[in-house]
Write a structure and sequence with these properties.
Largest sheet: 7 strands, mixed
Low-confidence stretches: none
Number of helices: 0
Number of strands: 11
Order of helices and strands: EEEEEEEEEEE
Distance between the termini: 40 Å
Radius of gyration: 14 Å
Length: about 130
């Protein structure tokens, strides 16, 4: 069983930044494609960002492009989500997700495509 542990959430003013981290217990982290999702109160969980197992292929939700950056450190078994210029509409619980894949360049956008999930970390954007 792979465990994912998110950290880095908190309260930030609009325009501020946060860096989320997700550390995994996976022994072969480099074989996992990773994703970040978020869920705001009363809304469905939505895709935010994905990164391939190689770290080369990356994609984002349109509304966060240019503000968020996903990255991974395979030596540290960790994936990051750098969030800049945060807006009130970014407020949500952010979840890290993982799945194994045979494809170096595979990106996955649906929550149904991921097998492992973290417990979530809350991001509040408010003045």
């Amino acid at each position: 069983q792979v465990q994912l542990v998110e950290s880095g959430g908190g309260l930030v003013q609009p325009g501020g930044s946060l860096r989320l981290s997700c550390t995994t217990s996976a022994r072969t982290f480099s074989t996992y494609a990773m994703g970040w999702f978020r869920q705001a109160p009363g809304k469905k969980r939505e895709f935010v960002a994905a990164i391939s197992r190689s770290g080369v292929e990356i994609d984002y939700l349109d509304s966060v492009k240019g503000r968020f950056t996903i990255s991974r450190d395979n030596a540290e078994n960790t994936v990051y989500l750098q969030m800049n210029n945060l807006k009130p509409e970014d407020a949500a619980v952010y979840y890290c997700s993982a799945r194994t894949t045979n494809f170096n360049g595979g990106l996955y956008y649906s929550s149904n495509e991921y097998v492992y999930w973290g417990q979530g970390t809350r991001v509040t954007v408010s003045s």
